[in-house]
Amino acid sequence: xTTRLTISLFLLLxxxxxxxxxxxxxxxxxNQFNPTYLSFTIPAGWPQPATDIFSNNRLTEEGFQLGRKLxxxxxxxRDGNFPCASCHQQFAAFxxxxxxxxxxxxxxxxxxxxxxxFNLAWMKEMHWDGGxxxxxxxxxxxxxxxNEMAETIExxxxxxxxxxxxxxxxxxxxGDPTINSQRMLKALSQFMGSIVSANSKYDQVKKGAAxxxxxxxxxxxxxxxxxxxxxxxPLFTDYSYRNxxxxxxxxxxxxxxxxxxxxxxxxxxxxxxxxxxVALTFPYMHDGRRNSLSQVIEHYRNGIITSQPxxxxxxxxxxxxxxxxxxxxxxxxxxxxxxxMLKDPRFEQPR
Amino acid sequence: xxxxxxxxxxxxTISLGTEPxxxxxxxxxxxxxxxxxxxxxxxxxxxxxxxFGESFTINKFKYYISNVKLGLSGVPxxxxxxxxxxxxxQGLPASLSFSxxxxxxxxxxxxxxxGVDSTRNVSGAQxxxxxxxxxxxxxxxxxxxxxxxxGTSPQxxxxxxxxxxxIGGFKGANNVLKPVSILLPGGKFIDARKGEVSEIILxxxxxxxxxxxxxxxxxxxxxxxxxxxxxxNMADNYAGMFTITDVINY
Lengths: 351, 250
What we know:
The structure holds two protein chains of two kinds.
Chain A: H1 2-27, H2 61-71, H3 84-87, E1 103-104, E2 108-109, H4 140-144, H5 153-161, H6 166-174, H7 181-194, H8 201-207, H9 214-226, E3 241-242, H10 258-261, E4 270-271, H11 293-303, H12 323-334, H13 339-342
Helix pairs in contact in A: 2-6, 2-7, 9-12
Chain B: H1 2-15, E1 25-36, E2 39-40, E3 48-49, E4 55-72, E5 78-80, E6 85-89, E7 97-103, E8 105-114, H2 118-121, E9 137-138, E10 143-152, E11 162-168, E12 178-183, E13 190-192, E14 197-205, E15 223-224, H3 229-238, E16 242-249
Parallel strand pairs in B: 1-14, 11-15
Antiparallel strand pairs in B: 1-2, 1-7, 3-4, 4-5, 4-6, 4-8, 4-10, 8-12, 8-13, 9-10, 10-11, 14-16
């Protein structure tokens, strides 16, 4: 009885599959549309992203490659000189190497330090103040900002539509050659969201494939005692907004998170940045006001302005890190550099 | 049963090649007439006075209407427009009315949201009425500008006497999303029949932006362009701008 039922169900399903197949063929006009679907892999031991940025933007090789081309294309900027990659350089973990502020259109500076772009699939809110709520809409800000790429979305789309390659690439990704803002943004999101950094020496040690030097090991102990509550493993951030005790810059007057929420309790709070690849993302802090990791640790030891009302409670006594511990901590932070991501040919400028 | 379900799905897929209008449904047409008091709104050239005697001109007047529903007579269910997002833009005459299919029935009320529901404000890149090209999306603090009014007034202390209201914010106490529910006037009803069109004509009175629940003088607030209490107060006011002036079953 059970066997017969199973067989019947099998036949029914087989028939159903055949019918579905027939459906597909009858729709006709999509013969050329055959994208290669990719799966997004969560590194072992990592949390699931809070929201799946690919749930309404199914990851495909075509979409990834289109996003990659867009990311490196200067035509997304007004004068052609400022592709996304001008401020987000792969060798600098997709931050701007050795720049407090990045350069924008017409000899301008940005007003915040460019963050590294990786592990964005786990980042619910973009920008130092968390003002951007989805990776797909993030590029709208730098593309249109007058001190960044300084272009309009209309003109970007016109330039793409006039190009000899883009209509074909959009068709390969989306089924027809229509170029619109939604498709451009989804493709960019596929590329940016696919950049994952999970293969540093730290990760190798966690997997048992490498071991820390004695200095790195004691640095890791210091890290766990003093840093991990905000720069939480394995992403090395908890994505919260905190005031870490720097003075308000009198020129920039950047109040951080309060500018988004309007809540005075959020004054001077900025997103906790990841420490992955931190050796390459100098200068540090939202406005790049510290040049070296040594200076950053010194701030936490002796520089925190403890009188600020919104100072993070974890920092109210500053951090009791000894000089010796500082050296060890610096050694440990070097283990968070992920050479395989920095040199991954899939993330390079397409040829 | 499974096969029948799939067959039905199959037929639907094939029929997508033709007009998506279901012959079993009626069509509802909503038409918005933007007014200043009793006068039809004219952009750029006309000068008006608000309830406080402050004179002004308007050069942009746009607002989102979303999640449109019709209330049924006597039955506790409703007809819902799918993918219901519309940008009413005084500068684009074609945007002032839109149509959608509904099942046959008698409907006695119209429900909609002024603005874009919070879900779509956090769901990434959108298209159509929600395309950021429509200049109704904030790039620095993600979210839609739910309603926009721009113009000039001698009472404005801004450069060029500019007045500018970009009303948005979908979170917390200063959420500006406004559900509107209007009973069709005079005992009228929508009689949706297959193949037939029924039209609801609404007037939207811009004068309500300054006065209604809160007094908002141009002299005090010529510019409101961030989420906050002023934006919320203006939304409280403009939520009352709609009146149904006619219901026509063609």
